[in-house]
Amino acid sequence: MSGLVVYGLKEWCEVNKEEFLPPVCAKLMHKDDLSIMFVGGPNVRTDFHVEEGSEFFYMVKGDMLLPTIQRGKKVEVSIKEGEVFLLPSRIPHSPQRVADTLGLVIERRRTTDESDCLRWYTDQNCTQIMWEKYFYCDDLGRDLVPVVKEYYSLKDSLVPGQYVCDNPPLKQDVDTEVPAPFNLHKWIDEHRGELYDGKTLNLFPGHPDKEFEILIAGHGKSDNHSDIETWLYQLHGNISLTIDGQTTQLKAGECLIIPANKHYSVHREPQSIGMIVKQNPKGNKKN
């Protein structure tokens, strides 16, 4: 299909199940403008990560804990099996995962002028910064490691606040209170009538994050074009997708990436339900 790859999510996770165990605990399904990754455990982090982009979480198996700093206070977000959660840009977060769990995480590629930050606090309540470092992150698995190693090499001699940037290249969001996770399958059940009537609904209406557009589509036909990558994940039923003159079937449990700047048409069968994910890197930028 013109270079497009269809993944059966269940089968792909089974083939790559060893990657979800320590020490790796993660596997990329796709990496370009969007990063589509699945993360296992156990994976306990002591740092908080701050980045310019937003993140979408969906727990496929088991539960995870996501400590965050929201409006100056530590908030522990529990994301349970089957739940989705949208984390806006520039909010410190520290993913904690236990064994025998699996979660989907979607984020975007950094632009060349963006920085990430890893930060450690002096206490469990995260009231004072012990140490932080800003850096460009192109590859999470590669670029976080030297920063973590540097912190632990200095840890025993650190003075709280000594290595806090006075003029950071990334401004932490101190204003946003993030809506709680919710169960995707219960949400679909509540909106099944609208979806069966052919409507396409916003999964996160009114959410403070403006990077992600995550839609749940019922049956019908549509012609589409996007200047950014689009991830399609079919939840129920089948769809026919035509791009570059070729047509393929996307069945329940399958997913694929539509490249940027492509025209494509979709025919969704009756009682089919699919997820559409886009992430605009300019969505949370302030002019």
UniProtKB/TrEMBL annotation:
Gene3D superfamilies found in the cross-reference section: Jelly Rolls
Function: Catalyzes the oxidative ring opening of 3-hydroxyanthranilate to 2-amino-3-carboxymuconate semialdehyde, which spontaneously cyclizes to quinolinate.
EC number(s) from the headed UniProt entry: 1.13.11.6
Name listed for the protein in its UniProt record: 3-hydroxyanthranilate 3,4-dioxygenase
Signal sequence bounds: none
Catalysis performed (reactions): 3-hydroxyanthranilate + O2 = (2Z,4Z)-2-amino-3-carboxymuconate 6-semialdehyde
GO biological process: 'de novo' NAD+ biosynthetic process from L-tryptophan; anthranilate metabolic process; L-tryptophan catabolic process; quinolinate biosynthetic process
CC cofactor: Fe(2+)
GO cellular component, one term: cytoplasm
Primary location class: cytoplasm
CDD domains in the record: cupin_HAO (cd06123)
One Pfam family recorded for the sequence: 3-HAO
Domain of life: Eukaryota
